[in-house]
C-alpha cells in the first residue's frame, strides 16, 4: 500500500487555491429537457471564481471549447485566468470524479480514489481517468488509494474536512451494504484507516442519513459543512411533515456528542432548507449547504425561495474574510447537484503549478 507521506494533508476548502477545476457541461442526459440554461449558469460560476484563482475547465474537443468560450465571452467573463484542458468525460461532476489534492508547504500531490459512478451509473469509465490525467498535466505526484488490496472508492462530496485532522461523513453513503455500495465489507475502522493513510485525517465524525432527493445516497456536502476549523453548519427542516425532518433532527442529536481532533466540542450553526424543489414529480436535492468557498468569494445556490436571503446571511456571518454571492440553481439542481458538486479546488503551494 502506497501511503501519502506523513507531512501531507488535505487542506480545508477555505485555504488558498491555485485553481478550481470544472467540467464544461455536455451530457444532456444530466439535465433532460433543461440543458439550454446550464452553460449560462456555469458562466456565472466562472465569473465569480476567476478573479481570485485560475479556473481549469475540461472540454470534450476544440468545438466544445469554442462553444464554452462563446458563452463565457457573452457573459463578460475575462478569460485571462481561465485554462482549457481537452479530455472526454462522461458527466463532469468534478467534486466526485477529480482526485483529492494533498499538500505540504511546498508540494501538492493527487490521491486517486476510484470513482465508480456513485455505485449507481454505468457511464463513468471516462471520468475514472481524471486523477491520472490531472497529475500528468500538472506534473505532480499521483498516489493510488488502496486498502486491503483494493482501489478505494470515495467521492469528494461524501466527506468534508476542517484541515486540522477532522472529517465528517455519513453512514448512509459509506456504510450502506444494500443500495449504492462503494466498498463492500468495509467497516468504519477501514475507512478511518484510509482517511489517516491518504488525507491526514485522525478524527472521523459519523452522521446518519443525507437529505431527501439526494441521488448519491447520503453525500455530506448537501447536509453538513465546516466553515472554519471548529464550526459546523448543519441544514435543518422545521416542517414535521417533510421527509427531511426526522433524519435531520437525528443528525442534530448526533452533533451534540461530536468532538474535534483536539477534544473540544465543535460549534454548530443551523441553516434552513428551501421549500421542496420538485420537477416532473421528482424531489431534487436542493440545499444551501452545497456552497463552494473559493479565493474570491463563497458561492451559494439559491432557489427563488424566501430562505435564500436567510441562508446567505448566515453563511456571510460565519465566513467574513470574503463576500458571499448567491447563484440561481433551480435549473442546475435538476442535474441532482449544484455548486459544490460541480467544482473541485486545487490548493496553492509555494511551487506554482
Q: The CATH topology, please?
A: L-arginine/glycine Amidinotransferase, Chain A
Query: What coarse outline follows from CA principal-axis ratios?
Result: globular
Task: Please give the alpha-carbon distance between the first and last residues.
Answer: 27 Å
Average pLDDT number: 96
Q: Could you estimate the helical fraction of the residues in percent?
A: 10-25%
- Cα Rg: 19 Å
Order the strands across the largest sheet as they lie in space. 3-2-1-20
Task: Please explain how this structure is put together.
With 353 residues, this protein is α/β, with parallel strands linked by helices. The chain is 23% helix and 24% strand. The protein is built from 9 helices and 20 strands. The strands form 7 sheets. The chain has a 4-stranded mixed beta sheet. α8 links the parallel β18 and β19. The longest helix is centred in the first third of the chain and has 13 residues. The mean pLDDT is 96.
Amino acid at each position: 500500500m502506497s501511503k501519502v507521506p506523513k507531512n501531507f494533508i488535505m487542506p480545508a476548502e477555505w485555504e488558498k487555491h491555485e485553481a478550481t477545476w470544472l467540467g464544461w457541461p455536455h451530457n444532456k442526459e444530466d439535465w433532460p429537457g433543461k440543458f439550454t440554461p446550464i452553460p449560462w449558469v456555469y458562466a456565472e460560476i466562472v465569473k465569480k471564481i476567476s478573479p481570485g484563482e485560475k479556473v481549469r475547465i475540461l472540454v470534450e474537443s476544440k468545438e466544445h471549447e469554442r462553444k464554452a468560450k462563446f458563452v463565457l465571452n457573452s457573459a463578460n467573463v475575462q478569460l485571462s485566468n481561465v485554462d482549457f484542458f481537452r479530455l472526454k468525460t462522461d458527466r463532469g461532476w468534478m467534486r466526485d470524479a477529480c482526485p483529492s489534492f494533498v499538500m505540504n508547504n511546498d508540494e501538492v500531490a493527487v490521491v486517486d480514489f476510484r470513482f465508480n459512478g456513485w455505485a449507481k451509473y454505468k457511464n463513468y469509465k471516462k471520468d475514472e481517468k481524471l486523477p491520472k490525467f490531472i497529475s500528468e498535466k500538472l506534473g505532480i505526484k499521483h498516489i493510488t488509494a488502496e486498502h486491503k488490496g483494493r482501489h478505494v472508492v470515495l467521492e469528494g462530496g461524501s466527506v468534508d474536512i476542517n484541515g486540522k485532522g477532522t472529517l465528517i461523513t455519513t453512514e448512509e453513503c459509506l456504510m450502506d451494504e444494500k443500495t449504492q455500495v462503494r466498498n463492500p465489507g468495509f467497516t468504519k475502522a477501514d475507512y478511518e484507516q484510509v482517511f489517516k493513510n491518504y488525507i491526514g485525517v485522525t478524527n472521523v465524525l459519523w452522521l446518519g442519513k443525507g437529505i431527501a432527493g439526494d441521488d448519491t445516497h447520503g453525500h455530506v456536502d448537501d447536509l453538513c459543512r465546516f466553515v472554519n476549523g471548529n464550526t459546523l453548519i448543519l441544514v435543518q427542516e422545521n416542517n414535521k411533515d417533510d421527509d427531511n425532518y426526522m433524519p435531520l433532527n437525528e443528525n442534530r442529536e448526533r452533533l451534540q456528542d461530536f468532538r474535534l481532533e483536539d477534544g473540544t466540542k465543535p460549534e454548530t450553526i443551523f441553516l434552513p432548507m428551501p421549500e421542496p424543489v420538485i420537477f416532473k414529480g421528482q424531489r431534487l436535492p436542493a440545499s444551501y449547504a452545497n456552497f463552494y468557498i473559493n479565493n474570491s468569494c463563497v458561492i451559494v445556490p439559491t432557489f427563488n425561495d424566501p430562505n435564500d436571503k436567510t441562508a446567505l446571511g448566515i453563511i456571510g456571518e460565519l465566513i467574513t474574510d470574503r463576500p458571499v454571492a448567491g447563484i440561481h440553481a433551480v435549473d442546475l439542481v435538476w442535474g441532482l447537484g449544484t455548486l459544490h458538486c460541480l467544482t473541485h479546488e486545487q490548493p496553492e503551494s509555494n511551487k506554482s503549478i
